[in-house]
Amino acid sequence: MNVSNNRINTLIFDLDGTLVDSRQDIFEAVNQSRKILGLSVLSFDIIISYVGDGFKALLEKSFSDSIGNIDKAIEIYKDYYSNHLLDSTRLYPKISEMLEKFKGYNLSVISNKNEDWTLKTLQGLQIHNYFKDIIGGDTFSYKKPHPEAINHVIKKYGVNKENVVMIGDNYTDILAAKYAGVKSCFCQYGFGNPRGEKANWIVHNVQQIIDLFSTTTN
Question: Which of 30, 133, 169, 199 is the most exposed place for a label (fewest CB within 10 A)?
Fold first, then answer.
């Protein structure tokens, strides 16, 4: 498969569930926080289903049975995750190959994960230099699905909206693209949830992203 419009030159990537599989480290950080507060652990699937809207939303859902401890839980989680976010987190297969293929494009990351964690993850996995912009959930006033971060990228690089694609594994990515007036590509291989939102394209592995957006003009 290949995009007939070969003018696409700006690719914006989500982080978790798109570039990296970070599930185990997030799971461990939530349950370590619960253990410290004397709470029982949650299942892997339950915790991962809460990922996508930023870490505060993750913790509010993960500590819904102890909401009075939420401020303490946030502090514990931040401390633990900051020191363990690369214990098990790995790039999805062919991510490095894909980024090398697209190094002539405008590449950015827009994540709902805090900016410092996003940058630390990309640096630790040695792919940060591929991206012109690395934007976290706390970089601007709003996080996805608000289009603020995408609009920033469009304005900063003076690109046309028709040349831009938001690539991610969650409904927040699809909606942010929609609200910004750009196309979206949903990563079925990730661990997010489209919640019924429709992307322009759906991919099942990273090779399909390479095939889809490779052109003869970049």
Answer: 133
Split at pLDDT 50, 70, 90, the class of 135 is very high
* pLDDT over threshold 50, residue 4: no
Note if the pTM is more than 0.90.
yes
Beta pairing, strands 90-91 & 20-21: antiparallel
Number of domains in the chain: 2
Judgement on whether residues 79 and 178 belong to the same structural domain of the protein: no
Domain span at 38: 23-84
Whether residue 2 lies inside any domain: the answer is no
Residue 126's φ and ψ, nearest 5 degrees, are 60, 40
Are 112 and 56 a contacting pair, CB within 8 Å?
no
Helices (H), 85-195: 95-101, 115-124, 148-157, 171-180
Claim to verify: residue 120 and residue 208 sit in the same structural domain = yes
Provide the pLDDT for residue 131: 98
Give yes or no: residues 57 and 136 share one domain: no
CA 110 to centroid of chain Cα atoms:
6
Give catalytic residue positions.
14
What pLDDT score does 187 carry? 98
